[in-house]
User: Which sequence fits this backbone?
């Protein structure tokens, strides 16, 4: 007699987020826009309209650009400017 086989359950990895939290207004409305072939990414809050261009490297994803922007804003090294709209 053999033992009963267990069912193997594979868990799908969680996808990376596309929308982030703004460190200025605490709204869940920050998006990262990157044009293919460009070396800059635009990080902008949809609520308070604060935005900044950050460098984009080939190994970057939206999370990396947001992290760079967040660090610059929190440390006060970059002045975020209000966007139009």
Assistant:
């Amino acid at each position: 007699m053999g033992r009963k086989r267990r069912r193997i359950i594979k868990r799908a990895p969680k996808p990376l987020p596309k929308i982030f939290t703004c460190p200025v207004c605490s709204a869940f409305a920050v998006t990262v826009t990157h044009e293919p072939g460009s070396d800059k990414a635009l990080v902008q809050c949809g609520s308070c309209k604060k935005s900044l261009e950050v460098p984009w490297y080939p190994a970057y994803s939206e999370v990396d650009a947001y992290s760079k922007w967040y660090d610059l804003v929190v440390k006060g090294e970059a002045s975020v400017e209000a966007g139009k709209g």
Q: What stands out?
A: The chain has one helix and four strands. Residues 30-80 form a domain with the N-terminal domain of TfIIb fold (CATH 2.20.25). The chain has a mean pLDDT of 88.
